[in-house]
């Protein structure tokens, strides 16, 4: 059974940093894409960043480029999202998700989801 467990969310002032972690278990993810998505109150869920487990190629939504970095640690089966220069607009529940295949972006259709972690950025 696949499990994705997020951690690292919290409250931070604008300009601050947080690092989210997603610990994955239950299968081998070498041919999978790991992604971070977020959903703010009253808004639709949106893609934030994705990374191919094998090779580490990554992609980001435009609004986080240069501020967020997605990475993975194969030895720990964990994906990270380093978030710097946080803005109030980044406030949301952040979800880790995974899907088979090479597509880094596209429809928000994933095979497995984590439970989400709250990130709150105050101005």
Features:
single chain; 123 residues; mainly beta; 7-stranded mixed beta sheet; 4-stranded antiparallel beta sheet; globular
Can you describe what's shown?
The protein has 123 residues and is mainly beta. Helix content is 0%, strand content 52%. Strand 7 and strand 8 form a beta hairpin. It is globular. The chain starts with a strand and ends with a strand. The model has no long low-confidence stretch (mean pLDDT 95).
SSE order and pairing:
Blueprint: E1 3-7, E2 10-13, E3 18-25, E4 32-39, E5 46-52, E6 58-60, E7 68-73, E8 78-83, E9 92-100, E10 112-113, E11 117-122
Parallel strand pairs: 2-11
Antiparallel strand pairs: 1-3, 3-8, 4-5, 4-9, 5-6, 7-8, 9-10, 9-11
Q: How would you briefly describe this protein structure?
A:
By secondary structure, the chain is mainly beta.
Tally of individual helices: 0
Secondary-structure element string: EEEEEEEEEEE
Shape annotation: globular
Total beta-strand segments:
11
How many strands, what sense, and barrel or not for the largest sheet?
7 strands, mixed
Q: What class, by secondary structure content?
A: mainly beta
Global Rg: 13 Å
- Average pLDDT works out at 95
Question: What percent of residues adopt helix (DSSP H or I)?
Answer: under 10%
Tell me the span between the first and last alpha carbons: 40 Å
Low-confidence stretches: none
Classify the beta-strand content into a percent band: over 45%
